[in-house]
């Protein structure tokens, strides 16, 4: 069995990107509950994200969503982030809240609307040039609700053409990351429903096109760690959107619903080289905190990822490989489960203490008074929501 001391230095390179939208108000189709202290601007979202990083050391960057986080001066925004101790990360495009996109965006049959959707992505790349962001992440709401509503193949052909135009605009160090999702908001056919479709488009585009795996975007029972393995094997796992789900795309705190699944995913990441020093896999959260406080929700999330990473690193891979080679079915399974069942919480508290971080970031946040301060300060103005 590997010891915690053997893996503590490897934990030091963990970096989890936070989504700006996690700090705004969000909800279901039934109700969006407001909360005290919710940011009224992008700068305030960055300030909240910086709290998560200051208390955990795990979240050095923040993903932006355009147009929700559009500002006049992105260079200045980058400096604001830097002053707060974080940096701007992935730029997410948004073609799902404009009336023009009712029947699609990059797949739209109307060339005018498709060109508008492409132009939006080109604007996102302009922003990346200023922020220094590496990744343009594309999630499309495109799809159809009724058989016959659209020509499935025609939509794929137009998507390929649109993606090509966007890809050609990228700089040498930038990447296009294409996210898939099997349903919602379309309920009959989604245009990028699965990793195979995303991968096919990426392979056609070129080396800098990668797949984004959102853990909430699969049918129940899907073996997600198999997909992780396969994408790493193909060199096309660009990023994760971590969250957890009980039913559909619930966007709950990662590791809350099924910690064992998170462990299995992270083990395949590690085994496949996705956690190596030179790995370019981006680890992001894509979550909404509808009823719980948002900053503690993000703190809990990054701690959950760290905890399962630690347990996955503890797997004795030499012994596991040997058990697999010998056909020792239960022995191999036992090696994996020994690591999964190892309680690393006390070791991680000490790990944090050794690095000048609070041993208990959740308690430290409450004790800091930050929540009371923002509740008092951020009165008036419009609270940022999921979409504002
Ligand atoms: C939507 O289901 C996807 O997970 C996207 O990543 C989306 O951009 C994100 O949830 C923010 O709305
Ligand atoms: Zn996502
Ligand atoms: Zn989603």
From TrEMBL:
Question: Record keywords: Thylakoid included?
Answer: no
Question: Has keyword Isomerase?
Answer: yes
Give the species this sequence originates from.
Terrabacter terrigena
- Domain of life assignment: Bacteria
Q: Which Gene3D superfamilies match?
A: Divalent-metal-dependent TIM barrel enzymes
The EC number on file is: 5.3.1.14
The protein's name is L-rhamnose isomerase
* One function term, GO molecular function aspect: L-rhamnose isomerase activity
